[in-house]
Amino acid sequence: MITDWIVASSDVAQASVLSSHLGVPPAIATVLLRNGVSEPAAAKAFLTAALSAMPDPATLKDATRAADRLIAARLGGERVTIYGDYDVDGVTSTALLRTFFADELGFEVGVYIPHRLREGYGLNTDAIRRLAESGTRLLVTVDNGSSAIEEITLAQALGVDVIIIDHHQVSSPEPPAFAHLNPHRPGCTYSDKGLAAVGVAFVLLVELRRRLRATGAFSGRPEPRLERYLDFVALGTVADVAPLQGVNRAFVREGLETIRRTPRIGLAALLKRARITDINARDLGYKLGPRVNAAGRLDDATRGLTLLTTRDPSEAEKLAGLIEAQNDERRDLEVQMTERAHELCAAQDAELQACHILVDESFHPGVVGIVAARVVERTGRPTFCLAREGDLLKGSGRSVPGFDLKRALDACAHLLLRYGGHPAAAGVSLHRRELAAFVEAFDAVAATHERVLDEGPKVADLEVELIHLDARFLNEFERLGPFGHGSPSPLISISGLRGRARLFGEGHLRVEVAGTDVPIEVLCFGGAAHLAAFETDVDVLVTLERDRFRGRDKAVLRLMGLRPASRRP
Prior knowledge:
Distance between the termini: 24 Å
Oligomer: single chain
CATH architecture of the largest domain: Alpha-Beta Complex
Number of helices: 18
Strand order of the largest sheet: 13-14-18-19-17-16-15
Radius of gyration: 25 Å
Structural class: alpha/beta
């Protein structure tokens, strides 16, 4: 719990001018300025987050070429297979393409998702040979492929064209794919570089619709309404921790509305299991995403794919129950492995000053990425957690702000069998005999990154009086969202809060605040230790959410910081 914070200084005059231009409370204008949005036109675009403002899909390099190849495959009756990935981004990308092709084009495609434990990440030569033998002539990779030179060269030799849809860093030289859609490709002018793979796939569908329109494919029938598919895009974008900036804001905002209005059968079953009643971006990342991921982490990701695409309510209920059980198992493993990881950190050689590379027999390959993230949260150091698999070590790493994990691995490539990823997360595979050399090499690279050991007091984005948390403020505040990576929920400081505190559930704290325009409650999960603090007035540091479940309208403040009141109301 944070006990020391200050309120960020702000330009009151500039906030007042922006507030007048937009017709929003000054506090909302203050948050916009904190986000670097100062011009009225840019602020309006930020608050609107309209899908119509997305960049021209034709500027995504090879999008038109890929769309035309898909049209040719459909007209020629070629066998097309989507080669996905086992995480949420890969599963939702696969679900998006498969569902769109079937529903809008009457075009059934095959699907292949590699098994995490048996095959690992990305394309593999055995799978490509099997797919070619089964008749696949066009392979569409999603969330992988940007560095698969050997595998795509093999596919080409076997008479299989490959379209890559990806967002990971691109190898040099690039794979010899028929088309390669990745905003990070050299020479790609698509302006939004922060797309998840499912976002790249959606951009392709926009271009595909345009190319189909040009051929007269929609004569006498309605054009596909692509916003119907933004539920997939929203889930994959948030779960993959893509920055909620630019077009991603529109994807997630519109996708959440799609889920609220008409959730797919599988998503509805998952929402019920997760006890989500009024979904927001946080729920996508912390509740739905982990559940869809659980299937691929522990067993077969096709279970999650089937759940997202099924039209059978009984199948959806059954699959949601199985995935819920797997998620419970994943949670238990995560707790055990995190405890072990912290023990290893404490015992690790003091010479490792810049990173943690943790290896243990108990580590499950499907959960190592989560555990690495937990270690980073505690230590502030780039971390890899590696599981043993015979003579090999396989695992995942997580980074800290400002340290590019993928580039760091480039410097260690001679020690690795396989690796890939992006600045914040990566996967590796190496021989056990290379572990000591890898530890030394990676630590040397990590040592070049300056760690910030003392960040000083936390900085609140703004200070708000309870009396101003009215319905109008909540309406305008919602327009700042969706909140998540790259666009965090503003930290709000409130002084002299008084309320009735009580415990609920297993040690959770709820504080009801009276005398306000809309009902307000403060929530702190696992916050039983702070019950006594609310016997007197307190200052709180919170994030704000709105709860409209079953027609109510309530402001929910999630407690991030707490201290004795510095001034009385």
